[in-house]
Amino acid sequence: MVKINECLLKMEKNNIFKNVALKVSEYKKKNPDKKIISLGVGDVSKPIVKPIIDAMHEAVDDLADSKTFKGYGSYYGYDFLKEKIIDNEYKDFDISLDEIYISNGTKTDSTSILELFDINSKICITDPIYPIYRDGAASLNRKVFILDIKNDLPVIPKEKYDIIYLCSPSNPMGIAYKKDYLKKWIIYAIKNESVILYDNVYSAFIESEDVPKSIYEIEGAKKVAIELRSFSKNASFTGVRCSYYIIPKEIKNNINEFWKRRTINRFNGADYIAQKGALASFLPESQKLIKDNIKYYKDNAKLLRKAFSNCGFHFIGGIDSPYLWVKIKENITSWEVFDIFLKTLNIVIIPGIIFGKNGDNYFRVSSLGKKKDVVEAIKRIEKYYNEKE
Amino acid sequence: MVKINECLLKMEKNNIFKNVALKVSEYKKKNPDKKIISLGVGDVSKPIVKPIIDAMHEAVDDLADSKTFKGYGSYYGYDFLKEKIIDNEYKDFDISLDEIYISNGTKTDSTSILELFDINSKICITDPIYPIYRDGAASLNRKVFILDIKNDLPVIPKEKYDIIYLCSPSNPMGIAYKKDYLKKWIIYAIKNESVILYDNVYSAFIESEDVPKSIYEIEGAKKVAIELRSFSKNASFTGVRCSYYIIPKEIKNNINEFWKRRTINRFNGADYIAQKGALASFLPESQKLIKDNIKYYKDNAKLLRKAFSNCGFHFIGGIDSPYLWVKIKENITSWEVFDIFLKTLNIVIIPGIIFGKNGDNYFRVSSLGKKKDVVEAIKRIEKYYNEKE
Fold first, then answer.
1. Measuring CA to CA, which residue among A163, A233, A245 is closest to residue A204?
2. Minimal CA–CA distance to B187: which of B224, B137, B149?
3. What is the CATH number assigned to the segment(s) A50-284?
4. Which of residues 192-211 of B touch A (CB under 8 A)?
5. Within 13 Å of residue B1, how many CA atoms lie on the same side as its CB?
6. Model confidence over B266-317: pLDDT tens digits?
7. Sequence-ordered list of residues with C-beta below 8 angstroms from that of B33, at least 6 positions apart, any chain
8. pTM here?
9. The domain at B50-283 falls in which architecture?
């Protein structure tokens, strides 16, 4: 008789973001007249910029004509995109075409990549953490170990771990790791022959000079680090789906080659239109418009930082990242503060517990929404907390 | 120290289709003047039809405007597409919206779905078989058992298996399973509480009346069968990537619900543009043009059937499927016949061994190419075999 994979039996019915969405939609149903503003899930609000749109139209037209039609592409992505990524993002690091993999979303990539490694590998994640690392690993029958946070940074462990997930700029903590700190992780990984899965999907938000734009800025990183990136948050591709990751050939055990074996049997390449769009995101005219979009979100973040500061909150983030990680003032849980925000302020925030037990004194606020919504949300927050005090 | 997943260590460096591609490109490099015709890998040659192209342009424009912009979609696909699929493909079978999953390629889906089931599940495949079932399962540390073929049909086993892969219309065998035969499988699966993974991506090619268009035409199938479909071969989406599958809620052990748990943690939905395009494939004007395309491939298949017949080959397929499964006349292996075709006729066919040891007396021929290439290939084949005899 067919049996369910035991890891799914242990898994919660909904993932944590879905639990937020369900609570919000339940409240909306009961209160159809309330204007709910979301500072919650990290979807972008700016549409895709025109030069990328133009390129996607051209790609659609390519598919209409047998002379230019594209069927199955490369398992690993088109060279035209890989070359452009190297030129723009990795030219200082001697990354070759066969070290880049184009895919259709970092959410999927960040877990699938675990299939490279022995099923009993010791995987460690931080707490708080982007919960997909934890739940995705569980869905692949992998166990994770949890690192604590000290002074807002994951504590580098004394024990040996095989795989380490690091997310910088951090979701949910909204801060980005500095070079000096990352150097310690690279030294740790080289010493312990570990692999670091470096989720760098928010790299477009980095502005601090001591924060590297890529992990490969750190000496030795090509020996131990896989970097994951995406077009979601910079090119507004959350609905288009295009991501990439680097598996350097310098990582021991021929990891790059073994990943090719896995990929050819499991994936038929990313969408042609998405790859053409991603290519166009590197055009100078696109880059300019994307920078404007990032600035728009950063202006939102500045307003949010000011507001939470005015209301006497302690928080980090919102500089090298679209997220603020705000400490709860009252002696209540993060689901309780979520309820206050939803029911009293009609604002959606993400309760910190979603990101791990260390998150229960916090909530995450996103700056990726529309400015007018952010301004209105701030009004409500300031009014509530100023009247309260 | 990080260890490679043992299943990847056992896996061959290239997948089997890639081995064909490498041999062809090597030959081309040495013989740049030769005009090679591919009757090999099953990619389509007809471009995407205009109503779908128009819809994809509209979808691209939606992404350019903040009023219509689409970010993250549903994990399981947009309802607009799921509703249309039910209306067009499943209206007789009482399939509900939460039984359909939209995804980005059956190649990925057909293996990922194994994650639903216990890692020690007894999985069986036929021989010959679409090799991704075998190699994909291996990449997930799953073992497969192999069923023999008798009278061109997989032999229904006496033993209990948990998961059975069936592909109809069959890749590579080019035939489709009839209702009476499939009934026996459904009875087997109900009796043994097995699940049938029914890969039906070539359903658009079915013309025989006793072949069901969907496995759910068979009584009881909703209790045991997951059906996989794709827009690749009918709507020419091999480069666009859009697929779907049905997991009926009637299958025991809440399989449908458990798959939702897996999906929310591993996937962020299929591309919006692809889903809008797939939706438009159901427009009457698209359906008409798609039928013309299928007829075009079927006309190719007729020509190929006639030619191989004229040359004295035994073969099956090419009626309910784009593939012919041709028996080798000489006492040589399928790689040897591949070499003859490549080097003497400058034609690429797929050696049967790729699909399993029972395939080594056969080769697969695809009718999905351009008519002029098929006509030219036939000329070469007939000349060679007629002169030879």
1. A233
2. B224
3. 3.40.640.10
4. 192-195
5. 6
6. 999 999 999 999 999 999 999 999 999 999 999 999 999 999 999 999 999 9
7. none
8. 0.96
9. 3-Layer(aba) Sandwich (3.40)
Nearest to B5 among A71, A73, A117 (CB): A117
Q: What's the CA gap between B54 and B279, in Å, rounded?
A: 12
Q: Does B257 touch chain A (CB under 8 A)?
A: yes
CB contact under 8 A, A4 and B121: no
pLDDT digits (tens, 9 = 90+) for A241-268: 999 999 999 999 999 999 999 999 999 9
State in words which class domain A6-48+285-388 has.
alpha beta
Instruction: Note whether B72 contacts A257, CB cutoff 8 Å.
Output: no
- Architecture of domain B6-47+285-388 in CATH? Alpha-Beta Complex (3.90)
Residue B41: predicted pLDDT:
76
User: Coil, strand or helix: which one is A195?
Assistant: strand
Q: What is the pLDDT of residues A340-378, one digit of tens each?
A: 999 999 999 999 999 999 999 999 999 999 999 999 999
First to last CA, chain B: 62
Domain residue ranges in chain B: 6-47+285-388, 50-283
The domains spanning B6-47+285-388 and B50-283 adopt the same CATH topology: no
The SS3 assignment for B296 reads: helix
Q: Are A287 and A303 spatial neighbours (Cβ–Cβ below 8 Å)?
A: no
The C-alpha of A129 sits at a distance from chain B's nearest C-alpha, in angstroms, of 14
> What is the phi/psi pair of residue A286, to 5°?
-70, -45
Length of chain A: 389
Nearest to B50 by CA among B296, B368, B297, B287: B287
> Does B9 contact A at CB distance below 8 Å?
yes
Cα distance between residue A89 and residue A217, in whole Å: 11
B140, B143, B149, B152: CA torsion to nearest 10: -10
Residues of chain B found within 8 Å of residue A270, distances taken between Cβ atoms: 241
Q: Which residue has the tokens 């909150």?
A: A313
Q: Strands, DSSP E only, in chain A?
A: 37-38, 100-103, 123-126, 144-147, 149-150, 153-154, 163-167, 195-199, 225-230, 243-246, 315-317, 323-327, 347-348, 350-351, 362-366
